[in-house]
Input
Amino acid sequence: MGEALSCHLISPYVEGDDASLEFLDQEEDVLTHLGDAEINEGLMKRLLSGAELMTELYTPGTTTLHFSEHRRSVTEFKGGYKIAVQRGARLNEVKVFNLFFRIKSNRINSIDSTPVAQMYTARNGERLILLHPVDTIARIDYEKTFYLNSTLKLVNQGKVSDDAMQVMVSNLSGLNINERCAQTLMHEYGHILHWRAFDGLFSDLDMPNVYPEQISSSYAMNVAMLFWFQEQNYIYNVANRVPNFLTYNTQTRIHLLKESFVEDYRISLNMQSLNGKFILPNAVCVVGDLMTPELGVEGVRIVRNMLNDINNRTVNNNITGVDSFTQDMEHDRITISSVFFEAAFDSDWEPGKVTFTESDVNQMFEDLVIDNMRANADVIFGAAFNMAERYTAPLFEKIDKIEDIKNRVKPK
Ligand SMILES: [Zn+2]
Output
């Protein structure tokens, strides 16, 4: 038995099954446990599930496997899972894994960017939630201190009200180990939901005909996403909540929209169960939400409406042919939020000051078309053109430069 198996390797959670999976150092204990496995279906399922995940994660490109000193305890994992489910995240629809190691391979890198968790698309197209090892107690401390100090600075600059500060204090006081883990799980389940929505957009639009063989899949996804965010007016709401949103490029804006979406989803679950509490602020929109709380409330309402539609869709966790582009990590939220606090300190930015318009969105569609052209060989141009026309025709019609774009993407 190798080094890895002498540790607690993986603890996949099987709902309603309390048997714990432990690989022990002593050979006789291992034998005892193997004996248990023969008669314990739950344990056997966990064992197979863990082995399956290792097969998935460990590829020939794997360069590092780092066993972390900070592991989420089974109590944290199960406690967080239970809270997230009670709030309404349907985690039973996906496999959730509590990893005790970080890994660096050609498909996953949880070492260099130290994510807290991630939604991971397996090679068979199944979407999984992976919790990475973190020191949750230290993280809670770090986040509380950061959000309180940053908010106070804005209060002192006269940009945020004392009331908003009090709301922040009271929300952050709700954090404890299980609650923090639950927030992470709700965030990741939000990613599962938006990908499910994008799948829906694809099937509504006959996307499989051109996807993924003929076209860059990340491009197609971005087009579908942007289309949805605009159609539902979410992009205009987020643009008002994020300092200097217009200064970011198209790819970054889409990333911010996606992250804000899952944060608003997480907040909507908290608000429904906790009398309006958000616990942790929206990592992307925190500054706008502090200055104009109504914008945050509006964002949560829009996301809820968007999800009502998806919730009625058939569960589809297994779409085929999806490559590794659907890996959404929950990065350190302080890294994200601090960018926006810094932008607001000592500046005259305020929510809604610069209006984000339909023509800005059209420009983003244009950028996506051009990015895709640059990133792909000539053979793709035809498919890119067909798709751009089919999915964005209503928008492109409004762009004066449409003919120009068509000429640029038309197959030679
Ligand atoms: Zn995320």
User: Anything to note?
Assistant: DSSP finds 15 helices and seven strands in the chain.
